[in-house]
Amino acid sequence: MIIALAALVGVAVLAVLREGAPRGKAADSVTPEPAFEHARGGVVRTLAIAEGKLLARNPLVIAGVVLGGISMFAAGRGTRLFHDDMGVALMLFPLAGMTLIASDLAVLRGRRDGLEEQFGSCPVGPIARTFAHSLALAGPVLYACIFAAAWTITSRAFGSIGRPNFVELLTGPILVACAGLVGILLARLLPRSAASLFMVIAIGFLEGGLASERGHLKPLAPFMPTLYQPVEVETRPRGWHIVYLLGIAGVLAVAAIARHRRGPRIWSALGLAATVAISAAFAQYRAQTPARDARAAAWIATPEAFQTCRHHGLVTYCAYDEYTELLDRWRAPVDGVLALVPAPVRARPLVLRQRLPAEAISGMQRPEIRAALPFSVPRARPFVWSDDGAIHPDMTLCNHSREARCQIVLAESVAAWAVGLPIARIHPADPAAGDLPTEKERIAALGLMDSSGQARAVVALWLTLQSTPGIRGAPPDTRARQSDQGTAYTLTPCQEGPPVAWSFEDTGYARRLAERPAAEVAAQLASEWAVVTDPRTTTRQLAHMFDLQAPTLAMSIPPPTFHDC
């Protein structure tokens, strides 16, 4: 990605340096004949078509499209289209920058070729040529629209959920048009092509400054990045932002015309465009009201009031209305685990309710939402939810092509629930846990339960393996960490799974169980369920009950493909 960006910057620099010395008078020094000052619409249209073809084939514009495509695949396709659509405009920043430089070079083409004096005898004046160059931006804008459509289609094809907001997707194409208008205006005000390259850099710094701003000015960033965290409770005034961008585009277009003609109508048009932009900016500034903060707090604290639930037997699946597509994806691993446990366990009611992860609440940026919550959120240490007995998938689980990870995490959570292991983290992780001397101390400091050596941990791991047939043989979605002594290995869970640290030895014994017919193992476990799920029953006792051989090292170490927490 960095190499491609550096290469495209080099191309832009070379294109600017090829400008050469001017061989004619500056455009502003040429006074068109009065009879030709007002161009006919047909002439402007013909010139716009010709300039549009040149701009659409410009290597800089094509390079911007290519870099946008690279950024799309480097940053990843969307997972929640109704939230990730805001990133499309940022992916189009290379195209916008290259369009700015290319449009600036197009306006200054006559100056480079020494033809500005001849323009005075043409049937069009600089105003008409400015109109034509503005209309020629239709090509890059069309590229931006195709890019947004391609992002939506590929994201849906790879398992993303929801629909993008059409108004949000318009941000990218409008920004490409604004960048082209900046190039045209810059060429009229400062007829030096090198200025366009510096303008792109300056706009990049402006975007970065506004994007890093945490106050109410953040919505004024043209690319309008994520305003606040958590993004799920963010108020995004999409409509006002589009009006804001259109107002900026109007100011740029009229200002380029005003370079050659000034009068009441020009000043009125400029004032109207500026009024629209300023009014829309103020509307964005005032978007996050106390009422919306209170609703966001209710959305976090009482998810049941904003969710849709489906019942399958004694299992209840609940998700926020935008995420209901996920409910069917949750069923397969849950049903797989419940099919292998005894009937009394299946008779226990189970609730899977989507909830904002504790890490998102700890990182909340708006103090107004934090203050409106009905519970306190500590500032000096991480926040943890109270244990309500339900399994809580987070906002991103099962909403992308990583279906294997989704199945493992949910199966692992239901298996832990079935055997009596904890399913909710009730103690916050200590940030200094990595500095503790022993593995067991680090596990406790992370708020995890050390299940090593317990028979019920082996049973839970076996249930996870058997209920995820598409990834048979894979352990839970975990990271392997080796202790300082090098003699014990511990699997620590992802944030989405249960707060249990699984030992490598227990993982190996679970694979030994998986070598046998599932029905046979399930029947024997059902007959001894009270014993095998007793915390006092050890892994060695379970191995003796099933006459299991000690697992090999290869059976205990998880494959690298599942170290992606």
Please give a quick description of this structure.
The chain has 565 residues and is mainly alpha-helical. The chain has 28 helices and seven strands.
Give me the secondary-structure category. Answer: mainly alpha
Helix content: 40-55%
Number of strands: 7
Number of domains: 2
Radius of gyration: 31 Å
Describe the main β-sheet briefly. Answer: 4 strands, mixed
**Average pLDDT rating:** 79
Q: Specify the overall morphology.
A: elongated
Low-confidence stretches: 1-39, 472-493, 559-565
The termini sit apart by 23 Å
- The proportion of strand residues reads 5-15%
Task: Kindly report the spatial arrangement of strands forming the biggest sheet.
Answer: 4-7-6-5
Q: Helix segment count?
A: 28
Care to describe what's here?
The protein is mainly α. It folds into two domains: 41-214, no CATH class; 301-562, no CATH class. The protein has helices at 2-17, 41-56, 59-75, 81-84, 88-91, 93-107, 109-112, 116-119, 126-135, 138-157, 166-169, 171-189, 194-211, 238-258, 264-285, 290-301, 327-338, 343-346, 358-362, 367-372, 403-419, 439-445, 455-466, 504-514, 518-527, 529-532, 539-546, 553-556; strands at 307-312, 315-320, 350-353, 449-450, 478-482, 489-493, 500-503. A four-stranded mixed sheet has the order 4-7-6-5. It is elongated and about 95 Å long. The chain starts with a helix and ends in a 9-residue tail after the last helix. The model is unreliable at 1-39, 472-493 and 559-565 (pLDDT under 50).
